[in-house]
Structures are given as structure tokens and as C-alpha cells.
Amino acid sequence: MEHIIYEVDGPVGIITLDRAEKANAVDQQSLDEMDEAWSMAAADRDVRVIVLKANGKHFSSGHDISVTDQAVGDDGKATGDNPGTQVDWKERGLQAIYEWETIHYLGYSRKWRDVPKPSIAAVQGACIAGGLMLCWPCDLIIAADNARFSDPVVRMGIGGVEYHGHTWEVGPRKAKEMLFTARNFSATEAEQLGMVNRVVPLDDLVDETLKLAHQIAEMHPFALAQAKRAVNQTMDVQGFYTALQSVFDIHQTGHGNAMTVGGYPVMINLEQMKKTN
Ligand code: ZN
């Protein structure tokens, strides 16, 4: 694996994002590798707790959409160059995006959420948009005091990232504020809202997370799986599972609209957005 490090520390499986030079932006390769690491941790009976962490200053700057200057032509419209993804949307349209994101975005996040072992995310620095889709599926989140969380994709003409945890994580009003304003939520605010379990000094983040992981790993694995399922199942009967799918479909209408208006799956040109409002 190139962008992910997977290691086992006694009963704890540790998945580390290792793409600090790109602020841990996730492209298809990172996602596939991360899924491979989650699958190994899930399959290994000796692993009782999974930790997800990231090397570098930032947890994750989100999906690697690699929108560069080349992506916008002289006419202000997209050229279609998008090296961050292997989606052949120019040939197959929205169907290609829908299928690809079903597997790599919604599918992976949902699968990791359902792994029947406790998981803990350790978050420092920026955790933006697609970054939320990495830590939200974890059962617990430990945040460094410099962590900040945001989903600014409304700025790109889309109503939120593919995995709609927002309403469940922070409640409907704060979820709307998060989406409408695109602002950062601090670690402290995230903790007050119940999105984060605890905030620790940056220097202690990994140690505190591993300490908690090892403490939880002393519990009986089946009891842990039952406890996890009890909470997740309670959310699911309240509609979490079906809401995720239906909001994913709403998300796709954002890509469809952006493609129709600007010829690109997200609105990458603010002037273009103003014109179409
Ligand atoms: Zn999308």
C-alpha cells in the first residue's frame, strides 16, 4: 500500500493515512487501500479495536478532486481534466458518477461503519468534507485541540458530501448551519455537539487514542459487537440507513445540475455560480 499504513499493535489494528504531502486528500487509490486495511482489521480475530489516524498536520482535506487551473478553460467552463478520479463521466454522464460514488464514497463509509468491532478516529488539523466521511463511520472520535471540521461543498454547488452524517452527528439546526455557511466547527464545539467524544492536546492525540483502544480491547469482543450493533441498529430503525441512501440520491442531483450548467460535476467557478443563481 502506498497511501495507507496498516499495522497491528496487540489487539489494536491501526490504519494510518499517509499522504501528508497532499494533506491526506483521498483519491481512489487511497480509498481502495483504506478499504483493504479495514477489511484486514475486520477479518483478523486478534484485532479487537480499530484505530484510524493520519500522519501530518491535517487529518484529511477531503476528496482529491484535484481541480487545477487546467480544469477551467478560457471560456470559464470546465475542460473535463480531473486527474483525481477515474470516473468516465464525460462518456457516461451522471450514471458513471452515481455508480462510482456508490461504491467508493457511500459504500465504503457505510461498510466501515458496520464493521462489528469498535473503531476510533484520531483527528487533528483540518477535517474537510470527504474527511468527515472517514471519521464519521468510526464509533468514537478523539479530536486534537487544533482539529476543525467543515463541509464546504455547498460552495461547489452541491448540498453536502455523499455520506449524510451531518443531521445525525450535530442535530438538524447545526447541520444546516454547517452546510449553509461552510464554516469550521472547532474541536470544542464538535465535542459540545456530541460529534466528538473528547478533545486532547495535539501532542497527546495518538497516545490517548491508543490508550483508549487498548482499554476497550479488554472487553469481550462479542459483547462489544453487540453493544455497537445495539446503537447502530437503534439509529437504523430511526431511519439512518435509508436516509443515507436517499440523501445520496439528492447529492447526485447536485452533480447533475453542475454538469448541466457548467459541464463539470461540481461548480468550480464562483462567477458561474453567481450567474446561475
Ligand atoms: Zn459526489
Question: What can you see in these coordinates?
Answer:
The protein is an alpha/beta fold and 277 residues long. The protein has one domain: 2-enoyl-CoA Hydratase, Chain A, domain 1. Helix content is 45%, strand content 14%. The protein contains eleven helices and nine strands. The chain has helices at residues 28-43, 89-92, 94-113, 132-135, 166-170, 172-181, 187-192, 205-216, 221-237, 240-262, 270-276; strands at residues 4-9, 12-17, 49-54, 119-123, 126-128, 140-144, 148-150, 185-186, 198-200. The strands form two sheets. A six-stranded mixed β-sheet has the order 1-2-3-4-6-9, sandwiched between helices. The chain has a three-stranded mixed β-sheet with strand order 5-7-8. α1 (28-43) runs parallel beside α3 (94-113) and α3 runs antiparallel to α10 (240-262). The protein is globular, with a radius of gyration of 19 Å. The protein binds zinc ion. Zinc ion is lined by residues 101, 162, 251, 255. Residues 101, 162, 251, 255 line the site of zinc ion (ZN).
What keyword list fits this structure?
45% helix; binds zinc ion; 6-stranded mixed β-sheet; 11 helices; alpha/beta; globular; 277 residues; single chain
